Amino acid sequence: MKLKYLEKSLYEAPIVKKGVYDYVIHPITDGVPSIAPELLREVTDEMKKHIKKVGKFDRIVTMEAMGIPLASALSLDLGIPFTIIRKREYGLPGEVSVEQVTGYSKSKMFINGLKKGDTVILVDDVLSTGGTLKAVLHVLKQMEVIVKGVFIAVYKGTCKEDLVKLYGIPIMTVVDIEIIDGEVLIK
Q1: Is residue 164 part of a domain?
Q2: Taking the model in full, what pTM does it have?
Q3: Is the peptide bond before 153 cis (omega within 30 degrees of 0)?
């Protein structure tokens, strides 16, 4: 098993329905029951293998909330600061809002501390419908922030190729899963 902690924890993760959406409750994507250090290390070590291929960048960017543990670990390992796209508006000069629509919610997020010409990578816990990532990439493009790559821990969807075509930015996922009959299948 290549990613023994991640794969084992995904097979053991409970699945709940949010409308028609199958929601996997997992330590990396939800912090439930807790994020074991060896699991976090395994996921970020795998991400780092791919991050090194994108070349130089100035900042790691993540979305609140579950991208924060990943960005924190990567920031410490790589010695690169990170910025959190927050769910809270601060009203600071230069703050930019992002309206996101996911498979189960709609909300706003707010970008602070990024400006035209910044070179970044995006890190997040899960990609499923692509609503959050699409909204963030759209706004970062408008801001003229250069996104060198997107790094996702768990992919459970069909939107990755469309987002790559739309934005021309590589998207790397640590593990791809599918939910079949209430069970996790690792592809």
Answers
A1: yes
A2: 0.95
A3: no
